[in-house]
Design brief:
- It is a single chain.
- By secondary structure, this protein is of the alpha+beta class.
- It has a single domain, classed as Gcn5-related N-acetyltransferase (GNAT) (Aminopeptidase, 3-Layer(aba) Sandwich).
- The protein is built from five helices and seven strands.
- The chain is globular, with a radius of gyration of 16 Å.
- The mean pLDDT is 87.
Length: 178
């Protein structure tokens, strides 16, 4: 497995994985998305260097977006300090059930903490039947706030979650006087 940044040549394959994930979630009555994110947004994210993947034997197995800014809908709930926002974690149909999504999330966290030196990592997910919140709790994410957020396809009960990074813990230790 290899964690790497996506390039524009990967856009079609990455977008296909996103569309597959939308269909998979909807088939399980999980309304994280009711339709794919517009493809133009994928292109913009790739151009800004915000999209990454887990590659298996030269094929993209899973994708994730690591945003350097927060979506405006949570600006009042975010704390102080440096942070990033994980979004659009998707696994391709041919790779689902093999923990590639988990591996990608773990590697994304490691990358954010070691390369970008962010104090907090945020993400949001639909509350629904708790499938997604339980998944993210396994990675040390804690609940911050819940609210209904209006999207073009309806209002969704969303949960903002945060993980305080190891980088923040190291900063804390450096600033402590023993």
């Amino acid at each position: 497995m290899k964690f790497r940044q996506l390039s524009l040549k990967d856009e079609t394959e990455a977008y296909t994985i996103h569309c597959q994930t939308v269909d998979w979630l909807l088939g399980r009555k999980i309304r994280q998305w009711t339709r794919p994110v517009p493809e133009s947004i994928f292109v913009e994210r790739i151009e800004r260097g915000e999209m990454f993947c887990m590659e298996v034997e030269g094929q993209i197995a899973a994708i994730v977006t690591i945003l350097r800014q927060e979506p405006g809908c949570w600006q009042n709930e975010l704390g102080s300090g440096t942070f990033t926002f994980i979004s659009t974690l998707c696994t391709g149909n041919d790779y689902r059930g093999n923990n590639y999504g988990k591996a990608l999330l773990s590697e994304s966290i490691r990358f954010i903490e070691s390369e970008w030196e962010m104090e907090k990592i945020y993400l949001d997910c639909v509350v629904g039947d708790q499938f997604l919140p339980k998944f993210y709790h396994e990675f040390g994410f804690k609940d911050v706030a819940m609210k209904g957020i209006e999207y073009p396809t309806g209002v969704f009960e969303m949960l903002l979650m945060v993980r305080v990074s190891l980088y923040a813990f190291m900063l804390f230790l450096i600033n402590c006087e023993f």
